[in-house]
Amino acid sequence: MTGSYDPDLNLTYWGTGNPGPDFNVSQRPGDNLYSDSVVALDADTGKLKWYFQYTPNDAYDYDSVQVPVLVDMDWKDKNGQSKPRKMMFWANRNGLFYGIDRSSGEFLLGKPFVEVNWMKGFDEKGRPMRTPAGPAVIVPGPERRIVDLEAHRPAEALARSARRIGKCSSFHGMSALNPSRQMI
Q: How confident is the model at residue 53 (pLDDT cuts 50, 70, 90)?
């Protein structure tokens, strides 16, 4: 995992991993602070300046260890006025593309770059609003059944599902970003 550094702000930006245990959210209630996030650290002291959490209480293994892209550009505010901003763009493993003000951590943009079924939009602070059912996977094999990843299953059932999924050559945790699609 590689972070990014802004010499003007003297901040380093790092993505963080997912919480554990991965798929059993009943064992770790709450947002699981700082997991699946970007953290902005003072380069001299290492102190946290701000953070933004992409997938609170992640039940899907959507870690945030992608490389942040830093861009200085004009950005239109809510009134349509264009102003220079220090932006950070992030194509997250959760299937969403983000634009964040890298000075403050303010959420400015969020949109899917692949089809997502685990969330239906964002609140005003950029927190994803989950769909009621959450994502599911089709377990290959003779039974070919659907497994709800949000269901609270015993560890034995979870391990059995993981073994089946591990044998499937077509199971993919994330699709590649299509660069021909305009995100901003």
A: very high
- Phi/psi for 157 (5° steps) reads -65, -40
Q: Which residues are catalytic?
A: 61
Sequence-distant (6+) residues with CB within 8 A of 73 are 84, 85, 87
Q: How far apart are CA 78 and CA 143, in angstroms?
A: 51
User: What letter does residue 149 receive in the DSSP assignment?
Assistant: T
**Beta pairing class for 11-15 and 4-6:** antiparallel
Bridge partners, 146 (sequence order): 138
Sheet holding 11-15, edge to edge: 4-6, 11-15, 37-42, 48-53
The ranges assigned to domains in the chain are 4-130, 136-166
- The reply to whether omega before 56 is within 30° of 0 (cis) is no
Q: Considering the entire predicted model, what is its pTM?
A: 0.72
Q: How far is CA 155 from CA 21, 55, 160, 180, in A?
A: 10, 23, 9, 41
- Give pLDDT tens digits for 105-130: 999 999 999 988 889 999 999 999 98
The tokens describing 35, both together, are 């997991």
Do 52 and 105 touch, CB atoms closer than 8 A? Answer: yes
Q: Report whether 107 contacts 100 (CB < 8 A).
A: yes
